[in-house]
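Hypothesis: this fold can be encoded by more than one sequence.
Test: take the structure tokens below, design a sequence, compare later.
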């Protein structure tokens, strides 16, 4: 039997939200990810098949919706009202994690893709020159995924 078999609202919420990777998907949708590849970049260790399953489950639960992307010939994922209402919960979970469990970062927990996606998400493009700007990052001590570029053009930032 899937789930807790209980009418308890916490149990019902946990049935949807506690699958591995689910809260990270919702976090990144809250922070502006819209496409499957955005999520793959921002959560680099999630297997693509698992990501697809999580997106489908969140869609079935009414937390997200999948809509045709304008001009891209692909799909976008957007939070529904139910998904948007998870923001305070995720903010509290993040604050709790920062205070109580993130006392030491392990090397294997540091991934350049996650860092670059966060920089991409929070960079203030309006503070950069109006012309195309490329910022190069190199993580010299890595064997793989050591070179990254941010391309900023017309206010859009791409990794």
């Amino acid at each position: 039997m899937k789930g807790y078999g209980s009418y308890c609202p916490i149990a019902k919420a946990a049935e949807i939200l506690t699958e591995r990777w689910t809260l990270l998907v919702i976090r990144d949708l809250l922070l502006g990810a819209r496409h499957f590849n955005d999520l793959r970049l921002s959560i680099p260790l999630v297997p693509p098949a698992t990501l697809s399953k999580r997106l489908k489950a969140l869609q079935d639960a009414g937390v997200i919706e999948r809509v045709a992307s304008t001009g891209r010939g692909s799909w976008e994922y957007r939070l529904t009202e139910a998904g948007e209402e998870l923001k305070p919960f995720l903010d509290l979970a993040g604050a709790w994690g920062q205070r109580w469990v993130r006392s030491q970062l392990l090397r294997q927990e540091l991934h350049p893709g996650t860092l670059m996606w966060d920089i991409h998400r929070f960079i203030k493009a309006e503070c950069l020159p109006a012309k195309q700007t490329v910022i190069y990052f190199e993580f010299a001590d890595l064997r793989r995924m050591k070179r990254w570029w941010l391309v900023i053009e017309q206010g859009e930032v791409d990794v």
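The mean pLDDT is 88. Helices lie at 9-17, 22-30, 36-42, 48-60, 81-84, 87-100, 112-122.
Hypothesis status: open.
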